[in-house]
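Support reply, case 0932

Customer input (verbatim):
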Amino acid sequence: MSLLMARISRNMCLCQPALRLVAYQCRMLSTVADPPAEQPAEFYDIIIAGGGMVGTTLACSLGKNPQLADRRILLLEAAAGFKPCSADAYSNRVSAISKGTHRLMQAIGAWPQIEATRVKPVLKMQVWDACSDALITFNYDDLADNISWIVENDVLLASVYRQLETVKSVEIRYSARIEECRLIRDGADMSTVRLENGSRLKCELLIGADGYNSLVRRSMGVDNFTLAYNQMGVVATLKLAGRPANNVTAWQRFLPTGPIALLPLNDEMSSLVWSTSVPEAKRLLQLDEPSFVAAINEAFNKTYPRNNVIEDVMKNVNSLISTSSGSRLERAPVIESVLEKSRAAFPLGLGHTSTYVGQGVCLIGDAAHRVHPLAGQGVNLGFGDVQCLTETLAEANYSGLGLNNLAQLTKYEQERLKHNVPVLLTTHGLQRLYTTDFPPIVGLRSIGLTITNVLPPVKKFLMNYAMS
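Our regenerated output:
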């Protein structure tokens, strides 16, 4: 009996490796056959992709609208968290805030915080041609009203975020990078977003506020016209020499290589936006501080070669028109120094998508349109989108039409196209018109600028249209 038991024990030991192999293969087959269940999708009424200035402002505007109080809104931000702006450190990226944007910031409650941090009103603007000294000035009578306000992007964003923290219907999700979007027209009953961390989200309306490389726009499959200007915008924060008593003028000079602008930050400092060729931009970034300051001062004051025919034509034009309504060329402030580490550059281009909306999806800001910064209208177009889309969705929700109703979203698109396309075409035309020193073109633009300058109603119309 003991011999029989010993043989059975020996055979079982010999079989153990084979049994373990069979068990392992069974587990592998079970894993292949039964994959883990996909995470259920979280539902939000509206998902906004992109937590920049425009996307964040839209979230705040929607969340504070009483006709949308019953809707859950999610803001997806790729950054790891909100970074408050410093009370001492100035940002090198600024925006010229229009009156329309000013009204929007007041409506969502962000303007008092902006004023309490840093903002500078612009009461006057001088634009002139380096190839002819033809100029135009903009200001309201007796400087009684602001043309615009210069606000650092970080200050504006921080002020909107503080308001957003008080809106209970809006949730912010940080480190939220979108991996894939499935739209309603792809066969789903709702738009679906999958994040890089595996989270799945569903919504009635997906809004792309994710910049000119928008993933939401690419998911829509629409045409997007783009044009690279082969230029870069060089930005920096500058300290003025002599400390002007009242630094309220925005200066812009059109050089043969592109415009250079000086925007007031306070009575001692201004912000630089210099559009120039890519090689020149790279050279400017590599200069030491004294050489960089000298280059800026030269750009505002250098006398470029003049064409004698154009000079004679302009003398005749000036003698024929009344000079009582004209303006005399004033010198821009002298730059003393540049703040450390404030120099940077970014590529410039034009872009416009063929459509802003689809079933359950729409685009705002740079995701829909991108313009040259020479007129300071880029971010204002985006904020105009915010105002219009908020009104459209509030009306649709109040009427019971739903947030993804294509007919309602098309109203938003049509309204914004009326404003965005003319601005886009105008800024593109100005960019082409003023980046050449070809004498006939210089002559025509100089005559046009000079005549417009002596027609106050025309100037007032241009100011009101651009800054409305």
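We compared this against your earlier run and they match. Two observations from our side: Residues 2-33 form the longest helix (32 residues). The radius of gyration is 29 Å. Please reopen the case if you see a mismatch on your end.
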